[in-house]
Amino acid sequence: GAVVSQHPSWVICKSGTSVKIECRSLDFQATTMFWYRQFPKQSLMLMATSNEGSKATYEQGVEKDKFLINHASLTLSTLTVTSAHPEDSSFYICSARDVSSSYNEQFFGPGTRLTVL
Amino acid sequence: GQNIDQPTEMTATEGAIVQINCTYQTSGFNGLFWYQQHAGEAPTFLSYNVLDGLEEKGRFSSFLSRSKGYSYLLLKELQMKDSASYLCAALDSNYQLIWGAGTKLIIKP
Q1: ∠ at Cα B29 (B23, B34), nearest 5°?
Q2: Where are the beta strands (DSSP E) in chain B?
Q3: Which of B106, B107, B62, B65 is nearest to B88 (CA)?
Q4: How far is CA A56 from CA A33, A47, A93, A95, B54, in A?
Q5: What pLDDT digit, counting tens, does each position of A38-75 carry?
């Protein structure tokens, strides 16, 4: 099956610093990738939809200047959390849509756990 | 608005059968997914239904009724490793996934 990787798996940073998370589709091309955030004991919350070669579409309430998304190639999307604060500590998960899949299935990366001190 | 409802938590016994229900209201409908998520891990795909009826895959089966906006996930011969959260997600007219809050399934020996 399709594989999506994320790097890093976990990161601890100081308040005010920026953190970049990479999401790669390893064996398929993904024109669309999704970034989710999940707080403990809560469901996935879609942050933004990332389309290759164009600007990301952010969900209501998500600050686009704080969460910078770049989807420069068909296999790579990055999420940069700028000036991170403790309230940004969360589990960030990306997914990639395989358009060759018969039902537009989204394949998930393993997630990145961000802790901001 | 768009909404997915599923129970918050369920408890079942090892070896038994459990059914997790999900109701949905979406703008358009292009299918319903079930995902399994263990604590601290990303979701993994279990099933997809777009037509009415039951889809069986090993110990797991998923059912859909489009007219009722209803789906269920049936887990048979429960094993301890099935303890996880089960997420119901509907694909709307824009092919965007609308997620339920997840059902935490606790398996007791």
Answers
A1: 55
A2: 3-5, 9-13, 18-25, 32-37, 44-49, 53-57, 60-65, 70-75, 84-91, 97-99, 103-108
A3: B62
A4: 9, 10, 16, 14, 37
A5: 988 788 899 999 988 888 999 999 999 999 999 888 89
For residue A105, give how far its alpha carbon lies from the nearest alpha carbon of chain B (Å).
9
Residue A77 pLDDT > 70: yes
ω into A8 cis (within 30 of 0) = yes
Interface of A with B in 20-59 (CB under 8 A): 34, 42-46, 49
- A103 touching B (Cβ < 8 Å): yes
Residue-wise burial string across A75-98, b where 16 or more C-beta atoms lie within 10 A, e elsewhere: bbbbbebeebeeebbbbbbbbbbb
Residues of chain B contacting A111 with CB distance shorter than 8 Å: 40-42
For residue B96, the model assigns a pLDDT of 81
In chain B, the largest separation of any two C-alpha atoms, in whole Å, equals 43
Section B33-58 average pLDDT:
92
